Amino acid sequence: MITFENVTVRFGDFTALPDLSLHVEEGEFFTLLGPSGCGKSTALRTLAGFNDPASGRLLVDGRDVTALPSDRRGIGMVFQNYALFPSMSVRENIAFGLKVAKRPKDEVHERVHEIAEQVALTPAQLDKGVAELSGGQQQRVAIARALVLRPRILLLDEPLSNLDAKLRNQLRVQLKELQQQFGITSIYVTHDQDEAMSMSDRIAVLDHGRIEQVGTPREVYERSATEFVCTFIGSVHRLGEQAVSRLSQLPGSPVAEGLRSYVRVERLTLRERHRPNDGRLVVDGVVDRADYHGYFTQYAVRLGDRSVSVRVPWSATESAFAAGDEVAIGVAPEDVLQYERSGPEAGA
Amino acid sequence: MIRRLPAWARSPMAVITLAVTAWFSLAFLVLPNLQLLAEVFLADGGLSTRAWGRLLGSERAMSSLRNSVLLALTLSVTVNVVGVFVVLATRYFALRGRRILWLGYATSLIYGGIVMVAGYDFVYGSSGILTRLLTTVLPFVPEDWFVGYPAVVFVMTFASTGNHLLFLNASMARIDQQTVESARQMGASQWTVLRRVVLPTLLPTIFAVTVLTFLGGLGALAVPEVLGGRDFQTIAPMMLTFANTPSSRDLAAALAIILALFTIAMLLILNRLERGGTYFSVAKVSTQLTPQKIGNPVANAVMHVIAYALLVVYVLPPALIVLFSFTDARSISTGTLRADSFTLENYATALLEPTARWPFVVSISYSAVAALVVILGLLFVVRLVTRFPRSRMSTIVEYVLHIPWVMPGTMMVLGLLLLFSTPQGVVGGRVLSGTVGILAVAYVVGKIPFTFRLLKAAFLGINRNVEEAASLLGASQLYTFRRVILPLVLPTAAAITALNFNSMLDDYDTAVFLAHPFYQPLGIFIRNATSGETNADASALVFVYSVILMVIATITLWLIYGGGAARILRLLSPRRARRRSGDALPLDPADQA
C-alpha cells in the first residue's frame, strides 16, 4: 500500500532521514516509534507532502506520489496540536474540506453529521467554537475533519500527547476502534512505547533516522533486534560479566559469554531465600525500599554495592516484602537478551 | 529545471507581491535616501565636502545641533523622573485616588503632538490664561515668559511620559508580589525594597523608554518650532527652514544624515537592551503586585502633594481646551467664563461649515487612505515573508521595509521632498512634490515598520499546522489565506489600522514638509493658530478639533488596549466573541521607535 523507497530528507546540511525504506500494508495500523528527533515526524510529513525528499520515491498502491501536492495524495492527517481552525465552528472545521471540494450543501450537511456521530460529537457541539471544547473533544474534531473526506490513508502525529493520562488511555481504544471501523491504513507517530504497543499491528523503531526494527509489538518487545530497541522499549537491567558467566553454565542455557546481556525488570523474580531456584540464576540481596503501585510493587534490592530494581505483579498468594527483608533475585537464562558490542542481535 | 527555482518563485501570488514591493521600496524607501546622500556628498559631478563645510560654517545649524543634543539629554532625565514617579504613584504605592491620578496622567496618551502644543500655548503662551493671571499678579513677568529651552523641556517632559505609562506600567504589573513580600519579611524597609528589588527589575524597560525619549528629543519638530523662540531651535525645525530655501537644501540633508546617525546608534543600543531580556518573575505562578501603603506619614503626605500637583499640570491644558471649546469667541480671547459664554456654535461651525471642516476632512481622508493602503499592502507582504521564512528574498524584503524604522521620520520626508522635486523615471517621469499624493505616500512609508512588526508577530502566532491541514484538505494557497489565515490576523490588522489612523490625524511633522497648499491637514491648521496672529474664531475651531481628536484617540485606545473591542464583540455576537481569545496588541518599546 505505502512504500518509502530509499527516501532521504535533508534540511540544509542536516540529514534527517538517510535512505529510509519501509512498506506498510493496506488496512494496517502502523506505528513509527522512537525518541525525539529520530526522524519519525519527518517521515510522516514527507509522506504527507510537507517535506521534499532529496532522493528516493514514495509509492501509494505502486503509484509514485513523490511530486504530487499534498491534497492529491488521498491522505488525511491529525496533527499533534490538532491544527483546528480557531476562527471557525466545529461544523465549519469538519466541513472545510468538503466545501473546498465544492460538494453540494446537502451532502456536506449529511456527511458532517454522519462523521460527527461516529466520533461521538453531539449536534450541539457542532455549533460551538473549537476553543470552547475540551482537549479530547478537539481531538475528535480533528479526527472527524481528517476522516470526512474518506481518505485511504490516515496519518496521526502524536495526537494523544496533549491529553492527560486517563483520557489518553480512553482515546487510544476509541482511535483503534475507529481505524478498524473505517478499515483505513494508518501511520501513527509516537514516542510513547505503551501507546505503540497497545494500538499497533506493526511497529517500526527508529533511531537517528534509521530503522532499527520492524515487527509486531510482541516481536519488538520480546525479540528486540538491536541493543537500542532492547533498551528503548520497556525497562531492562544490564547483567554483569560474572552473572552472564554463571548463567551460561546453567544446564541447557542459551546464554553466551562476551556479549552485552540484558533482562527485563518484570522477568526478574523475587523470593524468600533458600527456596528452590527452578533452573534460574539466584543472587541474594536485601530489600532497600518497596514502592507500592497497586497492580505491582517496585522493589529496590541491594546486591553488594549495587541496587537492582525488581517489579513484582500483585498476587494474592505471594507475600509482599518490606525494607530490610533478605531476598533472592532470580534470572532465567531464556529471559536474557544478548547483543554484540555494536551491531544487531547475537542471540537472545 | 522548475525544481531549481526557489519555492517562492513558483507561486504567482508571491511573484506579484514581490514585484510591487520591490518597486515601492525602490521608489519610496531607497531612492529618497540615496538622493539625500547625493545632496550632501555629490556636487558638480563628483564627490564633495561642500555641504559639511557650509554646515560647520553655519552658526544657526551648529547651534541647532547643540540644542538638539541638549534637549535629548535633558529629557532623558526629566521624563524619567516624572515618568517613574507617575508609574509609582499610580501602580506601586497605595495613594488615595489612584484611579483619578492615572486617568489624569493618561491624558498624555490621547493628547500629543501639535494639539498638545496648542493646548500648552493656550495656558502658558503670551496670551495664555495662566500668563494673564501671572502678569496681573506679578507685573514684572514678561508676556513671553514661556519660551525657549525651559518651555520646550517642560512641555516635552509631560508629553513624553506616555511611554512610561504604557511600557513601565506593563512591566510593573509583571513584578511578583511575593518577591516584595519576601524582601519585607527579611527585614528590608519600604525604601530598600523599592531601591533594591523593584527598580532594578524595571531597569531594562527604563533604559528602553530612555532611548525612545532621547530619540524623541533629538528629532522634535513642533514643540521647539512653536515654543523654542529665536534662541532655541533644534535640528528638525532647522531642516524645515533649510529645506524651504532651495540653495540650503544640502544643509537640510546634512542635518538629516547627522540625525540618522544618532538614531541608528540609539536603535543599536535599544536592540542590545532587547537582547539582554527582562527579569520579572521566575515563579511558575506569580502573584499580582498589590499597591504598597506608605508607612511614613510625612513621605505619604509629600507623595500625595507631588502626585496631585502633577495631575494639575497634566490635566489643566486639555481640561481648559474641552471647557473653552464650548464657549464663544469673547471668552476664548479673554480667557474668562460667564454663564452666557457657553455655546455649541463652535461645534456646529467646525462640523457643518464646509471651509471650517475642510482641514478635518483632509486629515480624515489622508489618515484613512494611508492606514488602509499600508495594512492591505503589508497583509500580502507579511504573508509572503512568513510563508518563506528561510528564503534570502524574505530577509531582504524585511530589511528594506525597516528603512523608515532606522531613519528618522524627518529624514525620510526630506528625502521624498528632494527626490520628487524633479521628474523621476521610477514613477513614470512625474514630479510628485507639491501633489496631493506625496503626503499619502509619506504617511504610508512612515507606518510600514510599525505595521510590519505587529502584523508579522500576528502571522507567526498562527500555528503552522493549521495551514498544512488546510492544504491537505485541498484548499489552494489563496483560499487558505482568505478563509483560514486572514480571519486569524484580522483583529490585529484592525487594531493596527485604528492606531495608524489615529496617529496620523493630528500629524504636523510630515505635513509641514509635504502638504499641498489647498489640501492642508489639521496639523498645519492648528500650528497656524498658535502663531499668535489668529483670531478667536480660529482658536475656537482648534479647540473643537482638539476635543474631537482626543475623543477619537480615547475610543481607539479603549478599543485596543482597554478591552473595548472584545466587549463590543460580546454585545454584538456572544458566540463569536467566545470563540476568540485575547487579541490585544503586544506592548513593545521597540515598535514605537
Automatic annotation (TrEMBL), chain A:
Keywords: ATP-binding, Nucleotide-binding, Transport. It holds the Pfam family TOBE_2. The keyword tRNA processing does not apply. One of its GO terms (cellular component) is ATP-binding cassette (ABC) transporter complex. Residues 2-233 form the ABC transporter domain. The keyword Transmembrane does not apply. GO terms for molecular function: ABC-type transporter activity; ATP binding; ATP hydrolysis activity. SUPFAM superfamilies: MOP-like, P-loop containing nucleoside triphosphate hydrolases. InterPro entries: AAA+_ATPase, ABC_SmlMolc_Importer, ABC_transporter-like_ATP-bd, ABC_transporter-like_CS, Mo/tungstate-bd_C_term_dom, P-loop_NTPase, Transp-assoc_OB_typ2. PANTHER family: SPERMIDINE/PUTRESCINE IMPORT ATP-BINDING PROTEIN POTA, SPERMIDINE_PUTRESCINE IMPORT ATP-BINDING PROTEIN POTA. This is ABC transporter ATP-binding protein. The lineage of its organism: Bacteria, Bacillati, Actinomycetota, Actinomycetes, Micrococcales.
From TrEMBL, chain B:
The keyword Membrane applies. Keywords: Cell inner membrane, Cell membrane, Membrane, Transmembrane, Transmembrane helix, Transport. InterPro entries: MetI-like, MetI-like_sf. It is a multi-pass membrane protein. Residues 65-270, 360-560 form the ABC transmembrane type-1 domain. The chain crosses the membrane at residues 12-31, 69-88, 100-125, 145-168, 197-223, 251-270, 305-326, 364-385, 397-421, 484-501, 542-569. Pfam families: BPD_transp_1. It is found in: Cell inner membrane; Cell membrane. Signal peptide: none annotated. Belongs to the binding-protein-dependent transport system permease family. This is Iron ABC transporter permease. It comes from Brachybacterium conglomeratum. The lineage of its organism: Bacteria, Bacillati, Actinomycetota, Actinomycetes, Micrococcales.
